[in-house]
């Protein structure tokens, strides 16, 4: 795993993949390193394919692995893939985690036509942080829904600088 990590950090993904394929035993760390390596160099489809391979081999994700695959899914900008991942997020309980939930929200907000879906997802989140609020406000603001962005901002209990900035950038 150390060599695999080194290859991925230096963006030598051909070497990383070759090593990964030769590994007699792969653990969750191995899978996560390779998935995040491909996501980091914006080969989102490859990262998604590797996650699906991992899943087919019966390896269950942990929060770190799931966050890595969400980075790839966000880069794919494919709501169908994101929706396909949601049942796993629900089954594992990851969707209720504020970090994973915010990453999923971010993936939804990448498609301006999915702002209603993003808003529904946001409303269903059991916990929100500054990033959650600013992600939703920015998406609405950039999508031209200034009234909705303002309404969400007004509900933000903290009204942080990033949330203010997110609102103002759409004006």
How many beta-strand segments? 0
Strand content: under 5%
Helix content: over 70%
Mean pLDDT: 93
Largest sheet: none
Number of helices: 11
The helix/strand series, from N terminus to C terminus, equals HHHHHHHHHHH
Would you kindly provide a brief summary of this structure?
With 171 residues, the chain is an all-alpha fold. The protein has helices at residues 2-9, 13-22, 28-40, 44-56, 63-76, 79-92, 98-109, 115-124, 130-142, 146-155, 161-168.
SSE inventory with pairings:
Elements: H1 2-9, H2 13-22, H3 28-40, H4 44-56, H5 63-76, H6 79-92, H7 98-109, H8 115-124, H9 130-142, H10 146-155, H11 161-168
Helix pairs in contact: 1-2, 1-3, 2-3, 3-4, 3-5, 4-5, 5-7, 7-8, 7-9, 8-9, 9-10, 9-11
Give a structural overview.
By secondary structure, the chain is mostly helical. Helices cover 73% and strands 0% of the residues. The chain is built from eleven helices and no strands. The chain has helices spanning 2-9, 13-22, 28-40, 44-56, 63-76, 79-92, 98-109, 115-124, 130-142, 146-155, 161-168. The longest helix has 14 residues, at 63-76. The chain is elongated.
